[in-house]
Amino acid sequence: MRRIPPIGAQRTPGPLLAGTAVCAALALSLSACGGDGGGGSKGGSGAASLTGRGPITFVTGKDRSGYLQKQIDGWNIDHPKEKVRVIELPDEPNDQRQQMIQNATTRSDAYTVLNLDVVWTAEFAANRWLTVLPKDRIDLAKLLPATVTTGQYRGNLYAVPSTSDAGMLYYRKDLLDKAGISAPPKTYAEMWSDCDKVKKLPEGKGVDCYFTEVNKTESITISAVEAIGSAGGSIVGPDGRPTLNTPQAKQGLEFLVNAKKDGRMPKEAVTLDTEGGRRYFQSGKLLFQRQWPYQYALANADDGSSKVAGRFAVAQLPGPNGPGVANLGGHNLAISAFAKNRATALDFVRYLTGEQSQRANLLATSQAPTLASLYDDPEMTKKFPYLPVLKQAISNAKPRPVAVKYGDVTAAIQAQVYDAVTGKKPADRALADLQTALGPLTAQ
């Protein structure tokens, strides 16, 4: 029986890009895929090439939860000849992606299991940097359907969903209650009205109204997907072509532009990243915030690191005419096409994505699981009351553009949306320029 490391007291701030949980018995251990250590591949290898056993590496973004090593220790204790070594990449997703690509283009076997942002799967699969995974050895039926699609490319499975994600509205329930507001806002107009009421309170002085990330990173792409999607538009249509020349796209972008221009967001909004936004909310300076689930446990920490512990709640994101649309985030575990010991790697992927692992990880970090059953589990919903809200958000979420040239696509989105939000160009011009830039990047 594989051990689940004990879940201790609240960890130090930060999780999102960490892996999944530690877990228990891998009852479904693979039949001997055998091998004496296996070899690298020329790329794009199929499921039949999952051979070789021995030490592997797990490549992930910076662990902000403090829990990842406990997960790895649980595996290593029971697999002394197949130990996993963690390779932590920088905190910023763009930097993580670049380092993974550099490793793949040199056909290096240094990286074995990759913790990929869900939107990278198509790019990595199309470039033959990943190993095709056997669908019959992974129980996909138990996972949220929206998460399963993120690991597939052209009918093949290249990655297993390990954690999901969708934006939610964090709000200061104590301040809304004090202002006589009984429910969180469902529309932007309601949110601005609530903010005005709270600001009239003595406790509301110095509290900023709203924050979603608009710094020039991957985060602004996510904010644009949500704002445009909430208005009924999209950045890229079902046919894979840009769809930014619409009233809905304009309405969505102008929400971000006006929120910044009208002082609804903090002055430093364009410089705050995900962690900066978390710290800002936890300092008590923010009424409404668009944020990922990982913040929930940290903001409720009773170790003095959060001034809002027990004073906030979460809801669906608002939109222009009703509940808005969240971006579908999360992470998938994939196996490098150039790695050795890929039979061990598949066992490890299943270990991290199994039910006991995901349960332990949710309890330890509040990261969103991919197993549907955990969202309805009484023990989980008692500890994490936001789970029904999150499940609904994931079910209705919109992904970022799925593109083989995703790096170029998101760079174009970041540049144009940032220019609009910072007032360097009007929203109309930014959308027109983005439509032009995405045309050749999305052509198949």
Q: How would the blueprint of this fold be written?
A:
Elements: E1 56-60, H1 68-78, E2 84-88, H2 93-105, E3 113-117, H3 121-126, H4 145-149, E4 152-153, E5 156-157, E6 159-166, E7 168-171, H5 173-178, H6 188-199, E8 208-211, H7 218-230, H8 247-261, H9 274-282, E9 286-291, H10 295-299, E10 313-315, E11 328-335, H11 342-353, H12 355-365, H13 378-383, H14 387-395, H15 406-421, H16 427-442
Parallel strand pairs: 1-2, 1-3, 8-9
Antiparallel strand pairs: 3-11, 4-5, 6-11, 7-9, 7-10
Structure description:
With 444 residues, the protein is of the alpha/beta class. The protein folds into two domains: 47-165 and 330-391, D-Maltodextrin-Binding Protein, domain 2 (3-Layer(aba) Sandwich); 168-327 and 399-442, D-Maltodextrin-Binding Protein, domain 2 (3-Layer(aba) Sandwich), CATH 3.40.190. Helices cover 37% and strands 12% of the residues. The protein is built from 16 helices and eleven strands. The strands form three sheets. It has a five-stranded mixed beta sheet. Helix 15 (406-421) packs antiparallel against helix 16 (427-442). The longest helix has 16 residues, at 406-421. It starts with 55 loop residues before the first strand and ends with a helix.
